[in-house]
Structure formats: C-alpha cells, structure tokens
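Posting here for the record, re: flavin-adenine dinucleotide.
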Amino acid sequence: MKTATIVGAGLVGSLWAVYLSKAGYKVKIFERRPDIRKAEISAGKSINLALSTRGWKALDAVGVGDEIRKIAIPMTGRIMHDMEGNLTYQPYGKEGQAIYSVSRGGVNAKMMDIAEEYGNAKIFYNEKCIDTDLENGIVYLENTETGKKSEVQSDLVFAADGAFSAVRYNAMQKLDRFDYSQKYIEDGYREILLPANEDGSYKLDKNALHIWPRGRFMLIALANEDGSFTCTLFMPFKGEKSFETLTSKEAVDNFFKTTFPDFYNMMPNIADAWEDHPLSSLAIVRCYPWTHGKTALMGDAAHATVPFYGQGMNCGFEDCTVMWELMQKHGDDWNKIFEDYQLLRKPDGDGVQDLSLHNYHVMRDYVADPMFLLQKKIEAHFSEKHPDKWMPLYSQVTFSHIRYSEAWNTGQKQDAIMKKVMKQFNDIENVWDSEDVEKAILNEL
Ligand SMILES: Cc1cc2nc3c(=O)[nH]c(=O)nc-3n(C[C@H](O)[C@H](O)[C@H](O)COP(=O)(O)OP(=O)(O)OC[C@H]3O[C@@H](n4cnc5c(N)ncnc54)[C@H](O)[C@@H]3O)c2cc1C
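Prediction output follows.
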C-alpha cells in the first residue's frame, strides 16, 4: 500500500486525508495542536466561515457534504446596517442560491472523524513539523509536549499547514529559484461574539450575512448554530479611526455607541467582550513552485489570501478537487500529477488573491455607494435577461466552478463595460432597466 503524510489537520488537510484514504493510501496526518475534538481550544482564526459552491463540490465528491449540511446555515444575501439602523437587503445570487455559515471547528472535527473512519488515516496530535526532506518524502517532527524528535518517511508529502507553513518556510524557501512574497494589508480584525437572546433565539436574521459598512472599516456578522453570531471588525491598525485608538474600555464603548448604534443596542457590554478574542493581522502569501520531489503545498500553504471574498477555504477545497481529477487522469504518475497541479492551480491561486483584494475594497468603500449598487442592479437585470452572455462576478466566484483566474479577467472586462455604459446615460438612475441600456451593453460585448 502506498503511504502519504499530511502536515496539518486543518480544513484542507483533514479533507485531503479523506480523498487519499478513498484512493487506498495509508495516510498519517501530523498536527501541531492538540485534538480539537477533545480540547476546548480556539482554532486561532475565524470561528465561522462562509462555504460556497466550490467547497460543496469538493465535500460531496467524497460523500462528506451531507454531514456538513447538517451544521450549515444558509445565507441568501447580505443585509447592510446604516447609521440610523436602516436595513438594506441584497440577494447574493438567484432565487435558491446561498452561501453557508459553518463553524470552523465543527467542519474540522467532522472531517477528522470521517478521515479516521475510512480506516486508512491516522492523526497524530501535538506533532509539529520542523523540517522536510522534499525529495525523499521525509517529515521531521517535534512533539510540542515532550520535545521528542522523530521523522517519518512516505511516498508522498502534502503540506496543508496553513499560511505560515513550516514545510514551505523550512524547506521550499531554501530551494534555488523559489519565488516567495508576503504582504500584510493595513487592516487587522477582531472577533466579537454576539450572544443569543435569553430564549436562545437570534438577535438578527440568521439567513443573511450582516454588514455595517463604514467607509474605511466595517463590522460583519455570521450566524452560529446556537443562536449567537460571530461578528468581525475589520479596521486599520493605525490612524485616526483604528485599532490603536481603541485601547480603553471607554474608547471601545464610545466607538460602538456612535458608529454601530443598532449593534450597540444589542450588545451594550461590548467593552467587556472586546478582549475575548485577539487582534489579528491579515496577509497574502504568494509562492512558486508549489511542488518539489515528493512534496506538494495545498490550501493556505500555497495561496493564503485575505478573507474578503470568503473563498480561502473554498479554494483550498478546490485544490483537493483538482488534485483528485489529476489522479484520475494520470493514475500513479505523481510527477505528472504534481506538474499539472501547479501549472493549473497557480493562476487560480493568484486569481483568488486578486479577487479577495478587490472585494476588500468593494466591501470597505463601495457597498454603501449608490452608483455601485446601481451598477450591480443593472448587471443583475441584464444577466437575468441574457444569462448566456453575462454572469455577475460574485456569482462566477461563489456559485460556479469557473476558474478563479478566468472569473477575475471576465470581472474586470465587465466592470469596464458597465462604467462605460453608465457614463452614456445622464439619467441612468431612471433608465437603468430600459432597452437602450440593454442595447448599449450588448454593443460592448
Ligand atoms: C478572519 C478570517 C475569515 C475567513 N473567512 C473565510 C470564509 O468565510 N470562507 C472561506 O472559504 N475562507 C475563509 N477564510 C480563510 C480560511 O480560514 C483558510 O483559507 C483555511 O483555513 C485554509 O485551510 P488550511 O487547511 O489550508 O489551513 P489552516 O486552516 O490554517 O490549517 C492549517 C493546520 O496546520 C496546522 N499546522 C500549522 N503549522 C504546523 C506545523 N509546523 N506542523 C504541524 N501542523 C501545523 C495548524 O495547527 C492547522 O491545524 C477566513 C480566514 C480568516 C483569517
């Protein structure tokens, strides 16, 4: 039986273990943390995430989707909260389309169970990868409790050890001609738990992603299964309105009272809850190649991105889909699989990063801008009439399997067309759904 080592039992590592087990590999996973199913520990990152079409495809292909559906909350659109507490609803896609709020720990634990149940996967905890022999498939480990060092050799090694991958840092980055860049954005984030009402009910509509856009910063909220919401404040680290100004309870209290009044009414003890979660930074990591010898990078280890399109995990899951399809194509020829995998996937890793950065600006600066909202309305209207000619960018990314790189290119072209057409009409607000506007768009295609 062929053997495989996976470094990291996070979202991608635990799903990939299910795939490899299904293909008959004997899989060992080494995870730095203790077993999240036994220990009450935070995953260190966001508590819940948005799962969409690409993610579901990867889960369904190995029969894991239905288990995750049991713990997923559909969100059919975003609800914007303005300063006066007025709400504006924007559907994400067509009738019946939704993204899903899932618990990071819940998905991770469920997949660990399934990976182990297949019988071929074994997860070792508190085992930190400290180095890798990429060509010979040897992973060097250190036990975080005992300090004991060990090594494991296998036919293949998959590094799913996240944005700050040890395999990448300690081994890949030492290779000649290995490209690498790491870019922190100006903003960080802090999570806040908005508890359920006393009777366990939700304080907000659970079937929407809530956004409080405030120009240079924003608060978002996604529902959890227990009636609570995980809210995340994205904001610059430095500057006039920034995390560095929110250092006292009084400042936090005052900030929320004046900036997010309807939220503050639901959570007047915000200043006490402020320190419950750490202030964290956000970075984009680009690198290439993604494979060397017997080793491949997957998920965030290959293409960590900022979370503004809700696609990091979905993209990592899609890595599994692509690698799996290549296994069907090339059988046991892992040289070919690895070569095709990185050639195919690198443009899409870059694509998801470009898209995420773009949406960072959209969510921050444009979701409350009337012209932007009008543009989206025209696009949705046109796309409904000509579904074969136009799919809105958000739908391409979230509700399709179109390659990220292709979606990014098409999205930029669409944006240029819309800007041009909207300029042609002085009263675009009144004629946005007219035949003239429709014709003008058709002319540009
Ligand atoms: C605030 C925020 C919100 C997000 N929201 C979304 C969203 O809505 N939708 C979405 O699709 N994505 C979202 N993401 C992105 C998503 O979290 C990541 O893309 C996803 O977690 C990547 O999975 P992974 O398995 O590659 O890495 P990780 O989930 O980071 O898992 C890596 C695993 O490797 C382990 N590990 C690390 N180093 C070592 C080592 N040396 N040895 C052994 N084990 C190690 C870690 O402990 C961890 O278990 C968000 C990210 C952030 C920060």
